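During the second year of the project, the team shifted from modelling isolated chains to modelling whole assemblies. The rationale, set out in the original proposal, was that interfaces cannot be judged from single-chain predictions alone. As a representative example for this report, we include one of the complexes processed in the last quarter. Its constituent sequences, exactly as entered into the pipeline, are reproduced here:
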Amino acid sequence: MQKYQAIREAAYEANMQLPALGLVLFTFGNVSAADRDAGVFAIKPSGVPYAELTPAKMVIVDFDGKVVDGELRPSSDTLTHAVLYKHWKEIGGIVHTHSTYATAWAQSQRSIPIYGTTHADHNTLDIPCAAPMADELIAGDYEYQTGFQIMNTLAEQQLSYQEIEMILVGNHAPFTWGSTPAKAVYNSAVLEEIAKMAYLTESINFRAPRLKDSLIKKHYERKHGPNSYYGQ
Amino acid sequence: MQKYQAIREAAYEANMQLPALGLVLFTFGNVSAADRDAGVFAIKPSGVPYAELTPAKMVIVDFDGKVVDGELRPSSDTLTHAVLYKHWKEIGGIVHTHSTYATAWAQSQRSIPIYGTTHADHNTLDIPCAAPMADELIAGDYEYQTGFQIMNTLAEQQLSYQEIEMILVGNHAPFTWGSTPAKAVYNSAVLEEIAKMAYLTESINFRAPRLKDSLIKKHYERKHGPNSYYGQ
Amino acid sequence: MQKYQAIREAAYEANMQLPALGLVLFTFGNVSAADRDAGVFAIKPSGVPYAELTPAKMVIVDFDGKVVDGELRPSSDTLTHAVLYKHWKEIGGIVHTHSTYATAWAQSQRSIPIYGTTHADHNTLDIPCAAPMADELIAGDYEYQTGFQIMNTLAEQQLSYQEIEMILVGNHAPFTWGSTPAKAVYNSAVLEEIAKMAYLTESINFRAPRLKDSLIKKHYERKHGPNSYYGQ
Amino acid sequence: MQKYQAIREAAYEANMQLPALGLVLFTFGNVSAADRDAGVFAIKPSGVPYAELTPAKMVIVDFDGKVVDGELRPSSDTLTHAVLYKHWKEIGGIVHTHSTYATAWAQSQRSIPIYGTTHADHNTLDIPCAAPMADELIAGDYEYQTGFQIMNTLAEQQLSYQEIEMILVGNHAPFTWGSTPAKAVYNSAVLEEIAKMAYLTESINFRAPRLKDSLIKKHYERKHGPNSYYGQ
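Output from the structure prediction step:
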């Protein structure tokens, strides 16, 4: 068995879900899977079509972004993944896509307001949109700084990465994460659906109110609270 | 043969239609099928992916919401189904989805105006949007109260559940019903299409008029009136 | 071989194209195929799902709307087809759908402006939207009058049915026709695409100008003029 | 082996990608593949459905638009392809489609603003929209003049065909090109996605700002600059 086989397979399976769920065109996305004991993650190789992926082609990278194993060059977004794994000890998977509706919100530089229970079933807050970085950071170690941009945006809003598992990077596109790569992919699909519904909601009623607090609390807690009764 | 086999299979088949018709993402929906003689209904287990469903996994619940048979936990929306079955003696199936366009109207807190014959072929009225519940009801027995919220909205508009087999729950999502679970699923797909057409109609002409009464009457009656001539 | 076999098969094949092209939900559409020598047409039976259709189930009707052969009830729109076949001697097929974007324009009670060459490749004119009928006509022989409503709208705009093979019936949905049922189905798919593009065009630029005459003429004539050079 | 076999197959494969990628309805598009040594290109025959295409049916044309080999009539847009191959020495493939969102922008007569990194990953500029031609050029050798219209639009904006591999022809539809026919098809799919995202971006925030220069530069250079690190 190849080394790091478990995260290779988890990353492979999760990457293949992106085209299956309609979240990527061509190679516009990537998923990684972390092995906390080994201090590494497996990530999609850069620019390789999904149809050509195999677990063996996943690239193994440590939490400082150094390639540990694999013959291919890792995703160009690898340093963003590395920064988040290094600082967020509990996450096991990260996804980046350019999914259509979430990306349109990112390009609009607006957070996605919480308009309904589909949103509240997953988050209690507007989905934040990180402001574009300062020019000197962009010109420097861009992908590395993107990781800090994400962390800083959560910090400014006093949010933990456990409270909200998705973010829009302004002018760019969404990132999501979770305890496993499969959960992070799930979050990407949910975000895309929430983004589409919010766009339609504003088109139908440009004065649509945010969801009221009691409903946010109820829907979030029935799925995620101490007395949750959703699922098995 | 397993007990309640007929409603298990009817609920299973109807649930499987939701992803086939594009009405659900992941597990965001559920269908139930009632056995009026036995005073119970079969409903989707909570949070189980459609691909893993079987008739045997359906949960049997009575009209007070008590689980009668089945090892899994029923849908978190079970009490809403129970309330409606208990009060509406003629219905045999209920569907809840978060289908994209119908949910966007629900989030917009607007009823869907009757703009054309596609709508009139199924209803003679705007599709009502129930107002969000009072905070104390939300904090209490939420799903149970959602059933009453639906019934009260129809009552306020002097509508019977036979006249209109679909409703939007404000800020939340649609519910539909019918004489059978298959008919209730049909109603969910029709509602989603009507919701999309109404959104586009307002985008194309923000002063689009409601359908006039003579056309509403004609189209509804050719399908549902005493001298109907649609179908076999 | 069954009587009227050729038009039974032509109508069957054309009807089956409607779901394949995404133009119908459930049974919301119908195609007919005419046999000019026999003075009859074959049309979809009313309310029968596409998956259950066969050539033998097509209903044979004369140009006065009288059923000549077949055990099922014909489409509820049969009289509209009959009127058009009776008055338009050169057409061999008619299609009625509730395709999403064309129906939204019909509900908006607006003609579709000619905004580009995709439109001009098929028509030189805005696609007309017939005004809703007078109430007494609706209450009377509605489908029969719909045929005259279509003919009158073309007459008022001094158009022949050869110049434009598609129309929107206001508040209702589109009808298309052509020399064969296959051509009429093609026209329905083209109309749906033109309707979607025109909606998007106005959303992107609400002052988008109509296509200028020289481009209308050029594109139409390269496909349909005496010196056409499109196709084989 | 048939003469010009390599470009016949390349053109065939690339044409078949258009329906697979959802970029064409019926026959509304065409791809060509150039053989620079032989001074010819292979192009789709006019009006032939994609399902009936074969490499042998591709038509071989020289850079003056003269048919060199093949029994079918070439695409009605052949002269546009010929002009571009004649003047742009480095391109190996050209695509023309009427893809929905890109065509809507063309009909709107607006260039597509650069709103995000999905766009900047491929171009550093707004995607230009060529103004409609003068009437006398349209009435004359229309497709030939369309080639010059495209070249002139780039020239006016001081762009080379290597800097930007896509354009909208006002009131008409997009053209894309590239070093190979496969690259040109890729560009058509990317353009369609960019067009859809830009439409949504303006709908969500009608004051959405263009992407700032530092981000344009960074994203373009990480894919295409001298120190690019995208891909293998």
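The domain at 5-224 of chain A is CATH 3.40.225.10 (L-fuculose-1-phosphate Aldolase). The two ends of chain A are 34 Å apart (CA to CA).
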